[in-house]
Amino acid sequence: MEQSAQQAQQLDHLAAAPPPAPSLSPFSSFGASGFGGPPPSVPPEPRPILELEGPALEDELDALSDWVDDFLLPVYGAEVTTAAPWCLRWQEHDDVVAWLHSLWLAYLQHKEPDAGLAGMAVWHRDFLTHTVAAIRAPAGPLSACMTSPDRPAHRLLPGPPPSARSEKPDTDDTDTPGEAEAEVVGVSEPAP
Question: Is 120 left (phi over 0), alpha (psi -120 to 50) or beta?
Answer without folding.
Answer: alpha
